[in-house]
Amino acid sequence: MQHDNHGDATVDAIMIAADDLKRIAAWSRELNDREIEVARAGIVEKSYAADAYIFMRGDDFDYWTGIVTGLARMGTVSRGGKAASFAGLTAGAWFGEGSVLKSEARRYDVVALRDTRLALMDRSTFFWLFENSVAFNRFLVRQLNERLGQFIGALEYGRTLDATGRLARSIASLFNPILYPDLTRHLEITQEEIGALSGISRQNANQCLKRLEKQGLLRLEYGGVTIIDLERLRHYGE
Description:
The chain has 238 residues and is α+β, with helices and mostly antiparallel strands. The chain is built from 9 helices and 13 strands. Helix content is 40%, strand content 26%.
């Protein structure tokens, strides 16, 4: 173990096991043995404490990144101090391929909402897979397409829906089978975390969640929510 100087992170430099890679990275399940070995050799894991910045807008953060455990928020803060959330990142989510492909500084912040463990693939490994693996490229096309749709949707409902609608769509976005492939209908998340992802206060989130529960869309449970009607959540407010 060693400490990283970026954020509040602890680095684990032991090469990830093949079975562990397949568990945390759905994209690796389509790779051949050679490609898996290259991917394993290019990944390290890091742990971040709750509220730590994984990276900030403008950082040169040269890794393609996956969430092993925990929860993070992708967003930004304006010069006037107004925060905007772009997406939640749950276990199994991989992100940042656009910045790696374009070799540019990050255009958003990513903050750990709770203690979070990441898998970080270095740029050279990413580009080796990009140049040599058909399966990896198929995944990237699907991933970029889904992420674009997610951001367009977030822009739309952020401008047109009330707080309950924004919260419903924000929760529903965490159940995209491409971006979050292994999520079950039960989401371990606090009301404070849901508020942070939706851009509203915990108190407001509590009221919105109770409204959605009363309408039969989800069930509030200790330490999380269980989704009852995902389709209605996805189209809430239309």
